[in-house]
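Exercise: predict the fold of this chain.
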Amino acid sequence: MQPERENDLLERVLEMERQGADLTAYCAALRRLADALETPEHGPALRDAFIVYLSGVAPTSPNDLWAEARWDALVDLISEVPRFAALLRAIADRAAARGQGAVNLLSMLNARVLWRARDNLRQRRALRRRSLSSNETHGACHPQSRFIAQLILERVEARFCQDPEQARVLSLLLEGRTVSEVSRMTGQSRQAIYRWFGRIREWLSR
Protein backbone atom coordinates (compact mmCIF):
# COMPACT_ATOMS: atom_id res chain seq x y z
CA MET A 1 0.00 0.00 0.00
CA GLN A 2 1.34 3.42 -0.91
CA PRO A 3 1.79 5.92 1.94
CA GLU A 4 -0.96 8.48 2.25
CA ARG A 5 -0.09 11.83 0.72
CA GLU A 6 -0.53 14.91 2.89
CA ASN A 7 -3.05 16.46 0.51
CA ASP A 8 -5.14 13.29 0.74
CA LEU A 9 -5.83 14.01 4.42
CA LEU A 10 -7.26 17.43 3.64
CA GLU A 11 -9.03 16.29 0.48
CA ARG A 12 -10.69 13.45 2.40
CA VAL A 13 -12.15 15.89 4.92
CA LEU A 14 -13.46 18.13 2.12
CA GLU A 15 -14.87 15.15 0.22
CA MET A 16 -16.66 13.94 3.35
CA GLU A 17 -18.27 17.38 3.63
CA ARG A 18 -19.45 17.23 0.03
CA GLN A 19 -20.91 13.75 0.47
CA GLY A 20 -22.53 14.42 3.84
CA ALA A 21 -20.51 11.65 5.49
CA ASP A 22 -21.16 10.16 8.91
CA LEU A 23 -20.45 12.83 11.55
CA THR A 24 -18.34 10.55 13.77
CA ALA A 25 -16.11 9.57 10.84
CA TYR A 26 -15.87 13.19 9.71
CA CYS A 27 -14.79 14.45 13.15
CA ALA A 28 -12.23 11.64 13.40
CA ALA A 29 -10.79 12.61 10.00
CA LEU A 30 -10.62 16.26 11.04
CA ARG A 31 -8.74 15.33 14.23
CA ARG A 32 -6.32 13.18 12.21
CA LEU A 33 -5.72 16.18 9.99
CA ALA A 34 -4.96 18.32 13.06
CA ASP A 35 -2.55 15.67 14.38
CA ALA A 36 -0.75 15.46 11.03
CA LEU A 37 -0.27 19.23 10.95
CA GLU A 38 1.92 18.99 14.04
CA THR A 39 4.26 16.34 12.64
CA PRO A 40 7.50 17.27 10.85
CA GLU A 41 6.78 14.62 8.19
CA HIS A 42 3.39 15.95 7.07
CA GLY A 43 3.07 19.44 8.56
CA PRO A 44 4.92 21.59 5.97
CA ALA A 45 3.17 20.06 2.95
CA LEU A 46 -0.21 20.25 4.69
CA ARG A 47 0.27 23.92 5.53
CA ASP A 48 1.11 24.60 1.87
CA ALA A 49 -2.05 22.71 0.86
CA PHE A 50 -4.18 24.83 3.19
CA ILE A 51 -2.67 28.00 1.71
CA VAL A 52 -3.50 26.81 -1.81
CA TYR A 53 -7.09 25.88 -0.90
CA LEU A 54 -7.81 28.98 1.17
CA SER A 55 -6.17 31.38 -1.28
CA GLY A 56 -8.79 30.28 -3.80
CA VAL A 57 -11.81 30.68 -1.51
CA ALA A 58 -12.03 34.47 -1.29
CA PRO A 59 -12.45 36.61 -4.40
CA THR A 60 -9.39 38.54 -5.49
CA SER A 61 -9.34 42.27 -4.91
CA PRO A 62 -7.77 45.06 -6.98
CA ASN A 63 -6.93 46.74 -3.67
CA ASP A 64 -3.30 45.80 -3.01
CA LEU A 65 -3.47 46.87 0.61
CA TRP A 66 -6.45 44.58 1.29
CA ALA A 67 -4.84 41.71 -0.64
CA GLU A 68 -1.66 42.09 1.43
CA ALA A 69 -3.63 42.15 4.68
CA ARG A 70 -5.56 39.03 3.69
CA TRP A 71 -2.42 37.13 2.69
CA ASP A 72 -0.72 38.11 5.94
CA ALA A 73 -3.75 36.92 7.89
CA LEU A 74 -3.83 33.63 5.98
CA VAL A 75 -0.14 32.93 6.56
CA ASP A 76 -0.38 33.98 10.21
CA LEU A 77 -3.28 31.61 10.82
CA ILE A 78 -1.59 28.60 9.23
CA SER A 79 1.97 29.21 10.45
CA GLU A 80 0.88 29.27 14.10
CA VAL A 81 0.80 25.47 14.01
CA PRO A 82 -0.26 24.57 17.58
CA ARG A 83 -3.08 27.13 17.51
CA PHE A 84 -4.19 26.10 14.03
CA ALA A 85 -4.25 22.42 14.97
CA ALA A 86 -6.14 23.27 18.18
CA LEU A 87 -8.65 25.25 16.08
CA LEU A 88 -9.29 22.23 13.84
CA ARG A 89 -9.83 20.03 16.91
CA ALA A 90 -12.19 22.62 18.39
CA ILE A 91 -14.19 22.66 15.14
CA ALA A 92 -14.43 18.86 15.30
CA ASP A 93 -15.52 18.99 18.95
CA ARG A 94 -18.22 21.60 18.24
CA ALA A 95 -19.51 19.65 15.25
CA ALA A 96 -19.70 16.47 17.35
CA ALA A 97 -21.46 18.30 20.19
CA ARG A 98 -24.07 19.82 17.84
CA GLY A 99 -24.63 16.55 16.02
CA GLN A 100 -25.76 18.38 12.89
CA GLY A 101 -23.44 16.92 10.30
CA ALA A 102 -20.18 18.02 8.71
CA VAL A 103 -19.24 21.69 8.61
CA ASN A 104 -17.89 23.74 5.71
CA LEU A 105 -14.28 23.82 6.88
CA LEU A 106 -12.87 26.16 4.24
CA SER A 107 -15.66 28.70 4.72
CA MET A 108 -15.15 28.69 8.48
CA LEU A 109 -11.39 29.15 8.13
CA ASN A 110 -11.83 31.83 5.49
CA ALA A 111 -14.16 33.77 7.82
CA ARG A 112 -11.41 33.70 10.44
CA VAL A 113 -8.84 34.85 7.87
CA LEU A 114 -11.06 37.76 6.81
CA TRP A 115 -11.58 38.78 10.43
CA ARG A 116 -7.81 38.84 10.95
CA ALA A 117 -7.30 40.65 7.66
CA ARG A 118 -9.65 43.47 8.63
CA ASP A 119 -7.77 43.84 11.90
CA ASN A 120 -4.44 43.83 10.01
CA LEU A 121 -5.76 46.43 7.60
CA ARG A 122 -6.83 48.73 10.43
CA GLN A 123 -3.37 48.40 11.97
CA ARG A 124 -1.65 49.09 8.63
CA ARG A 125 -3.71 52.21 8.03
CA ALA A 126 -2.99 53.44 11.55
CA LEU A 127 0.73 52.87 11.05
CA ARG A 128 0.64 54.61 7.70
CA ARG A 129 -1.12 57.63 9.22
CA ARG A 130 1.44 57.79 12.01
CA SER A 131 4.27 57.48 9.50
CA LEU A 132 2.90 60.31 7.40
CA SER A 133 2.44 62.55 10.42
CA SER A 134 5.92 62.03 11.81
CA ASN A 135 9.35 61.68 10.26
CA GLU A 136 11.00 60.89 13.56
CA THR A 137 9.84 57.31 13.96
CA HIS A 138 13.27 55.76 13.42
CA GLY A 139 15.05 58.39 15.45
CA ALA A 140 12.75 57.75 18.41
CA CYS A 141 13.58 54.05 18.48
CA HIS A 142 15.51 53.01 21.59
CA PRO A 143 19.14 51.98 20.82
CA GLN A 144 18.67 48.60 22.51
CA SER A 145 15.59 47.91 20.39
CA ARG A 146 17.56 48.72 17.23
CA PHE A 147 20.37 46.43 18.40
CA ILE A 148 18.00 43.50 19.05
CA ALA A 149 16.25 44.07 15.71
CA GLN A 150 19.63 44.01 13.95
CA LEU A 151 20.60 40.74 15.66
CA ILE A 152 17.30 39.12 14.61
CA LEU A 153 17.76 40.38 11.05
CA GLU A 154 21.27 38.93 10.88
CA ARG A 155 20.00 35.54 12.09
CA VAL A 156 17.21 35.57 9.50
CA GLU A 157 19.64 36.48 6.72
CA ALA A 158 22.07 33.73 7.75
CA ARG A 159 19.37 31.06 7.80
CA PHE A 160 16.99 32.06 5.00
CA CYS A 161 18.94 34.22 2.54
CA GLN A 162 21.49 31.76 1.14
CA ASP A 163 20.11 32.49 -2.32
CA PRO A 164 20.75 36.02 -3.71
CA GLU A 165 17.13 36.25 -4.85
CA GLN A 166 15.90 35.58 -1.33
CA ALA A 167 18.27 38.23 -0.02
CA ARG A 168 16.81 40.66 -2.56
CA VAL A 169 13.25 39.79 -1.53
CA LEU A 170 14.07 40.47 2.12
CA SER A 171 15.83 43.73 1.26
CA LEU A 172 12.85 44.98 -0.76
CA LEU A 173 10.41 44.04 2.00
CA LEU A 174 12.55 45.90 4.54
CA GLU A 175 12.40 48.95 2.28
CA GLY A 176 8.66 48.93 2.81
CA ARG A 177 7.66 47.43 -0.55
CA THR A 178 4.46 45.40 -0.65
CA VAL A 179 4.57 41.72 -1.52
CA SER A 180 2.84 42.54 -4.81
CA GLU A 181 5.61 45.03 -5.67
CA VAL A 182 8.33 42.57 -4.66
CA SER A 183 6.69 39.88 -6.79
CA ARG A 184 6.70 42.16 -9.84
CA MET A 185 10.30 43.27 -9.25
CA THR A 186 11.77 39.80 -8.65
CA GLY A 187 9.57 37.61 -10.82
CA GLN A 188 8.67 35.40 -7.86
CA SER A 189 5.03 34.61 -7.25
CA ARG A 190 3.28 36.19 -4.29
CA GLN A 191 2.40 32.73 -3.00
CA ALA A 192 6.10 31.69 -3.04
CA ILE A 193 7.06 34.85 -1.15
CA TYR A 194 4.36 34.30 1.44
CA ARG A 195 5.38 30.67 1.91
CA TRP A 196 8.98 31.76 2.47
CA PHE A 197 7.86 34.55 4.78
CA GLY A 198 5.67 32.07 6.68
CA ARG A 199 8.66 29.80 7.28
CA ILE A 200 10.57 32.77 8.71
CA ARG A 201 7.69 33.63 11.03
CA GLU A 202 7.35 30.03 12.16
CA TRP A 203 11.10 29.84 12.89
CA LEU A 204 11.07 33.15 14.81
CA SER A 205 8.10 32.02 16.92
CA ARG A 206 9.94 28.95 18.26
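Check your answer against the key: The two ends are 36 Å apart (CA to CA).
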